[in-house]
Design brief:
Helices cover 42% and strands 0% of the residues. It is built from three helices and no strands. The longest helix has 19 residues. The relative contact order is 0.11.
Length: 88
C-alpha cells in the first residue's frame, strides 16, 4: 500500500515559485538618538539617586545596599546622552 504524500498548503505553494522573497527592509528605519535628559525619569534619578543608595545601604541588615549592577546602571543612565562625560 503506497503512502500518499501530503499536499502542500496554500502558503507553501505560494512561496515555492522561482522568484525569491523580497529582502526585509523596515520602512522608515532611521537612527534617532535618545535624549534621556528630556524624560521625566531623568531628573528624578538625578536628584534622588544618592539618597536612594544611602537609604538602601542603611536599611540592609548586611549594610550592602543595592547590588553593584543596579548602582552602575543608574550611573550609566545619568551619563547617557551627555557628550561631555567620558565613555567607559
Amino acid at each position: 500500500m503506497a503512502a500518499h504524500a501530503p499536499t502542500p498548503s496554500h502558503t507553501a505553494r505560494r512561496w515555492s515559485g522561482s522568484t525569491a522573497a523580497p529582502a526585509y527592509r523596515p520602512a522608515g528605519a532611521v537612527y534617532r538618538p535618545r535624549r534621556p535628559t528630556e524624560t521625566p525619569l531623568y531628573p528624578v534619578v538625578q536628584h534622588h539617586l544618592e539618597t536612594f543608595l544611602a537609604e538602601a545601604q542603611s536599611a540592609d541588615p548586611m549594610g550592602w545596599g543595592v547590588p553593584r549592577w543596579v548602582e552602575r546602571d543608574f550611573r550609566s543612565y545619568l551619563r547617557c546622552g551627555i557628550t561631555v562625560a567620558p565613555l567607559r
